[in-house]
């Protein structure tokens, strides 16, 4: 069996912001802001480091592209903790939309269609997309027009209960007929 080494060098994307702190700040002068948010003006980096050490805090370069760079006197571990908290809040606020699938057939009964309509209504009310597909097997492939009518009737039935929008029109790929719906 062949061993694949193709993905060996792929690194995970890290969106953490990197700060230069204390002695790693390379600029000769910085615009200094203290822990209370007061601007202390342009100060040599060595003096800013000395002020930070006196307060038992860190000197953090928050805006390296400014001329001169902006540095704050803060507790670095607290800053990292606050950013991690913000990142978690952002992640919680994101809404993940899933595509839920509903499969119909050419010989589906009325009761089964009603069940699938209720499922589609439930998925759409949760904010997900619904992909409807109908797979034709063997001799059923001759009756594509019947399958398209079944899908159109299904869409009309769902639209009566809940206003929907057809995101992807009916697409025929070999023996598979599919479409995607979303809530208006």
What labels describe this entry?
184 residues; 30% strand; 5-stranded mixed β-sheet; 4 helices; alpha+beta; 4-stranded mixed β-sheet; 2 domains; elongated; Ubiquitin-like (UB roll)
Mean pLDDT: 87
Strand order, biggest sheet? 1-4-5-2-3
Helical coverage, percent range: 25-40%
Q: Which parts are unreliable, with pLDDT below 50 for 5 consecutive residues or more?
A: none
The gross shape turns out to be elongated
> Into which percentage range does the β-strand content fall?
25-35%
Sheet with the most strands, sense and barrel status: 5 strands, mixed
**Secondary-structure element pattern, one letter each:** EEEHEEHEHEHEE
**What assembly state would you assign to the polypeptide chains in this entry?**
single chain
Number of DSSP strand runs: 9
Q: In the CATH classification, which architecture of the largest domain applies?
A: 2-Layer Sandwich
Rg from alpha-carbon coordinates:
30 Å
Number of helices: 4
CATH topology of the largest domain: Translation Initiation Factor IF3
CATH class membership of the largest domain: Alpha Beta
Number of domains: 2
End-to-end span in angstroms?
50 Å
CATH superfamily of the largest domain: Translation initiation factor 3 (IF-3), C-terminal domain
- Secondary-structure-based class equals alpha+beta
List the helices and strands and how they pair.
Elements: E1 20-21, E2 29-33, E3 39-44, H1 45-54, E4 58-63, E5 70-74, H2 76-93, E6 99-104, H3 110-125, E7 129-135, H4 144-161, E8 164-173, E9 176-183
Parallel strand pairs: 2-5, 6-7
Antiparallel strand pairs: 1-4, 2-3, 4-5, 7-9, 8-9
